[in-house]
Amino acid sequence: MPGLAMIRQIEAVGFRAWPATSVHYDGTWAIRMTAAHPSKRLNSINPLDPADIRDIPVRVERAAQRFRAYGRRPVFRQSPLAPPELDDYLAAEGWGRFDETIVMTADLTAMDFTGTIDQIPLRDIGRFVDASLKVHERDTVLRPGFSELLNGIRPAKGMFVIEEAGRPVSVALCVQDGAMAGLFDIATAQKNRRHGHGRAIVASALKWASKHGAKTAWLQIETANAAGRALYESFGFAEAYRYAYRESPES
């Protein structure tokens, strides 16, 4: 596992790449809230210092109240930056652990993009949102919230779509923040899988980021996604660290 400094860097670029509408700090706990989108990364309490263990019960309740005000169940996102004492407290209070996720990194300078298509990213956010919702088979009710999220990204972003017969079959979002490039929203339509679309769109996104000066690529993938992990490992990605969520037992 990388040192805490590298983890903090990845977490920071991750927050900028996937920006919450509201961020409130309680000490070093970042409480991220986004009423218009259900993403856990946008709606979670993120402890950012293993040494910040003061008044844990009081602060947990205070953060939970913010979630209740939004009509959401309180959720902690527990990375290696979270104090073990906090995790122990949440476990003892019945907060369930779920969705363990692997953060992977790769050296972009070591990748060979020979033969990779120079795909031009979309500039039309609405077109990308529509393509993403179709490929992921998500409800169109998420369209306004996802559009707002994309509009809020301040670093350079590349929105990639592969189409067949006028239909989107694969999507990827790449956010380049200085020397770091993050991959998000990667998916291929169910009936179009195993045709190389995922590999092609990831390669195009990484090539774009590399050409714009990124040196390190990173992404997040749930541990259960074995096929996705195999794809990324073939590009040279390796596990950097893991995080998981803890959700309040309240109904």
UniProtKB/TrEMBL annotation:
Q: Which GO terms describe its molecular function?
A: acyltransferase activity, transferring groups other than amino-acyl groups
Which InterPro entries does its entry note? Acyl_CoA_acyltransferase, GNAT_dom, Rv0428c-like_C, YpeA/RimI_acetyltransf
CDD domains xref list: NAT_SF
* Pfam families for the chain: Rv0428c_C
SUPFAM superfamilies tied to this protein:
Acyl-CoA N-acyltransferases (Nat)
Q: Where on the tree of life does the source sit, at the highest rank?
A: Bacteria
Asked if the record carries the keyword Metal-binding, the reply is: no
All residue ranges annotated as the N-acetyltransferase domain in the record? 115-251
> What keywords tag this UniProt record?
Acyltransferase, Transferase
Q: What PANTHER family does the record tag this protein with?
A: ACETYLTRANSFERASE, ACETYLTRANSFERASE YPEA
What this protein is called in its record is GNAT family N-acetyltransferase
Q: Provide the taxonomic classification.
A: Bacteria, Pseudomonadati, Pseudomonadota, Alphaproteobacteria, Hyphomicrobiales
